Amino acid sequence: METRADLNQSTLALLEKSDISEEGISAITITAEKSPYFAELLNDAAKKNVSITLNEKQQGTYTEKQSNGKIVVVIDKSFDPGNQNNGITNIDKNPIIFATVLAHELGHALLPGGNEGTPANDPAKAAITGDNNEGVGLTTEYIVAKQSGLGAPQTGYMHSDNGQGNQPAPGTLTALLDDAAIQI
């Protein structure tokens, strides 16, 4: 197995044992060549034995911490560029979007504040925890998109919401994230 980008052998093995299509793996490795941050996240995922799997179309994208401590990243099959008729036209035009969705979930899986918080009895506290967790995912997704050269209108939108809102990053956040992407 040849090492591509800055991905180590265990990372390539992680991708090859997943159910991601060849086109999806290609999109991931191309993005890792352009985004050192994404390559680092992937290598860290392999090191921490994170599993990556595809979910049925329109069944959601999420990160799950199992009771045994294992972390599983689940990506909606619609995002995989090798999936025929995925129904998401921007992925047909730019498969790097698939990699940014994976980056979003790796942010949840690996970064502090990405998937934390205890169930809150207070709805306001629960909303704050959810916003913080999504902030980590969105920031990760945005940095990888910027480093990989994904331009407007794709950069600054959450691709991982599968077309259910494509929430734009606020202008001030976008400027801060641009600075962070350059520095990483």
Automatic annotation (TrEMBL):
Gene3D superfamilies: Collagenase (Catalytic Domain) (3.40.390.10)
Single GO molecular function: metallopeptidase activity
Family matches, as InterPro entries: MetalloPept_cat_dom_sf
Superkingdom to which the source organism belongs: Bacteria
Designated name of the protein: Uncharacterized protein
UniProt source species: Noviherbaspirillum pedocola
